[in-house]
Automatic annotation (TrEMBL):
It comes from Maribrevibacterium harenarium. This is Arylesterase. Residues 6-193 form the SGNH hydrolase-type esterase domain. Pfam families: Lipase_GDSL_2. PANTHER family: SGNH HYDROLASE-TYPE ESTERASE DOMAIN-CONTAINING PROTEIN, THIOESTERASE 1/PROTEASE 1/LYSOPHOSPHOLIPASE L1.
Length: 207
C-alpha cells in the first residue's frame, strides 16, 4: 500500500463555494482513493488560505514551504506528493502573480527532496496548476482584485517549472472551471473531474 499526500489549500481541503466543507466522500482526495481502488492511502492535507511561500498577515501558519517537511515526516514514507497551491498567492495584499506562485511551488519541491530525518526516500511529485479564477464574489472580489487576469498564466508558468524540475504536471484549468457561485472553489463536478484525471498519473508513478 502506497501513501499519496495531497498538499494544498481550500480547494483540496474541500471548501464549499457558498460556505462550509464538503462531506468527506465529496472531496477530490477521497475520490482519488476510490479511483485507485482503495488499495492505497490518500491523505488530504489541505488547509484553507495556504500559500506557497508567503506569510499571511491575517492567518497564521499558512506558509506551505514552512510545513512541507514536517508533513512528509508525519505521514511518511510518502510515495507520491501532489502539490496544488497558488490560488491564495494571488490575493491582492501579496502583490505577486502566477510566475511567483510557480517559483513558490518550486521551493516546496526542493524542500520535499531534501533528506528527511527518519531516512524516508523523497516522494515522486505531481504539480497541479490551480484552475483559473473567474468571477470572485462578496469579500473575495476585493481580496482577489486583479487575480482573474493573473490566474490565466498559471498553466504556462507551472508547466515550465514542472518540466524544469522533472515532476509530473496537470493543468486543472484544462479539465474544470471553479464554481460559478464564488469563482474560486471547486463544485462537486470539479472534485470528481480532478480525481479522475489524477488517478492514471498516480498509477504510472506507482508502477
Amino acid at each position: 500500500m502506497a501513501t499519496i499526500l495531497c498538499y494544498g489549500d481550500s480547494l483540496t481541503w474541500g471548501s464549499v463555494p457558498n460556505g462550509g466543507r464538503y462531506a468527506v466522500g465529496v472531496r477530490w482526495p477521497t475520490l482519488l482513493q476510490e479511483e485507485l481502488g482503495g488499495t492505497h492511502q490518500v491523505i488530504n492535507y489541505g488547509l484553507p488560505g495556504r500559500t506557497t511561500i508567503w506569510e499571511d498577515p491575517f492567518h497564521e501558519g499558512r506558509n506551505g514551504l514552512a510545513y512541507i517537511q514536517a508533513a512528509l515526516e508525519t505521514f511518511g514514507p510518502v510515495h507520491v506528493l501532489i502539490i496544488m497551491l497558488g490560488t491564495n498567492d494571488l490575493k491582492r495584499y501579496f502583490n505577486v502573480g502566477a510566475f511567483e506562485a510557480a517559483k513558490g511551488v518550486e521551493q516546496i519541491i526542493h524542500r520535499a527532496r531534501m533528506k528527511l530525518e527518519p531516512g524516508f526516500p523523497s516522494p515522486k511529485i505531481i504539480v497541479v496548476a490551480p484552475p483559473n479564477i473567474t468571477s470572485p464574489t462578496g469579500e473575495r472580489a476585493e481580496t482577489f482584485s486583479g487575480a482573474v487576469e493573473k490566474s490565466q498564466y498559471f498553466h504556462q508558468h507551472f508547466q515550465n517549472m514542472a518540466f524544469a524540475n522533472d515532476v509530473e504536471f496537470l493543468n486543472s484549468a484544462g479539465i474544470l472551471q471553479p464554481s460559478e457561485i464564488d469563482g474560486v472553489h471547486l463544485d462537486v463536478n470539479g472534485n470528481q473531474a480532478l480525481a479522475k484525471e489524477l488517478a492514471p498519473i498516480v498509477r504510472k508513478l506507482l508502477v
